[in-house]
Amino acid sequence: MQTIIVTGGAGFIGSNFARIALRKKDWRLIVIDKLTYAGSHLNLSEIANDPRYSFIHADIADQAAMTEAFERWHPEFVVNFAAETHVDRSIDGPHSFLAANVMGTFGLLEATRRYWLGLEPSRRRSFRFLQISTDEVYGSLGATGFFSEESRYAPNSPYAASKASADHFVRAYHETFRLPTLISCCSNNYGFNQYPEKLIPLTISNAIAGKELPIYGDGKNIRDWLFVEDHCEALLTILSRGEVGQRYNIGGRNERTNLEVVTEVCAVLEEVFPAESNPALTAKGCKSYRDLIILVPDRPGHDRRYAIDCTRIERELGWTSRISFEMGLRATVRWYLLNRGWCQAIQGEHYDGRRLGLSAARAAER
What is the Cα–Cα distance from 226 to 190, expressed in whole angstroms? Predict the structure, then answer.
């Protein structure tokens, strides 16, 4: 049985990947996670009793802990999801993004390199290290065009800069040490188990509670949206057929303005949990979830548009996204409605739904 190490596997995308990998592959799966505010055993409850699954509570920056994990489990694959990911938090506190995303990736790469060098030649050739990155490393697009794998890196937020730096380390370890690495850059993910600070789950949670639905600026910033299960299928495809040393863009071909996304969430909620049936809205005198939408001052350095050209992975590896935004959004809204207890438990005292990333905005105003 082959073994895969999934770092950051208790987070949003990592936990979805772990579940899908065990369903699709006869692998032994080892999740390594530091269990920061967004990582939780709750996200892994569906696989907790699978005998092929094991969990290690550790920081990927801890090279001793990573070395011990490699020596114990002898993996054929490493997939690195471990990262701080929220742009607003990176504005308020960039240091944790440097520590987790740059130094963490470096520590993991070093432990991986030492382990890989000790493998017999056939296992060295088949070994793969997959770095999970983001389209935000490319910066901002104008009204036209798409990010391709040849687009230059131009990160504009501390989060994006930390991910870009990590990607450069991964590429350097391939070029310098010949470590068999791959990089994937995805567009905005949405789906099950996403921490409720991100746009779609935050909108769902606030709308259900009858709270305001704030949208930055004029609401016309554009993102390409990718259902998380489609993303995970793409990652499995890259692991099995991707060319070592290459970067693959993964997109959903679902461009929406932030205002359109929030409006569509409200429309789905009206179908499955009408405002007139929601005591939180009737108490406020709101006849529609859309009545909760407000525009607020923009985020500092807010990229205007992201759009992914995923032709390479479609043409060379045969992957395409299967879930339309409309279908994925309906499934996502229903999941959050059915799992309100999960939302409350995972947020705990870490997050109360308030806006983050205000420190820089207030400083700029002064």
Answer: 6
Which residues does the chain have with pLDDT short of 70? Answer: 358-366
Q: Which are the catalytic amino acids?
A: 135-136, 159
Instruction: Tell me the pTM.
Output: 0.95
CA dist., res. 263 & res. 260, Å (int): 5
Q: Is 280 exposed, middle or buried (0-12, 13-18, 19+ CB in 10 A)?
A: middle
Distance of CA 240 to the CA centre of its chain: 21
Helices (H), the chain: 12-24, 63-73, 87-92, 94-97, 104-117, 121-126, 158-177, 199-208, 228-241, 258-272, 279-282, 311-317, 325-338, 340-347, 358-365
pLDDT in tens, 323-337: 999 999 999 999 999
Q: Look up tokens 């471990």; give the residue.
A: 82
Give the CA count within 13 Å in the CB-facing half-sphere of 113: 18
Specify the pLDDT at position 350: 76
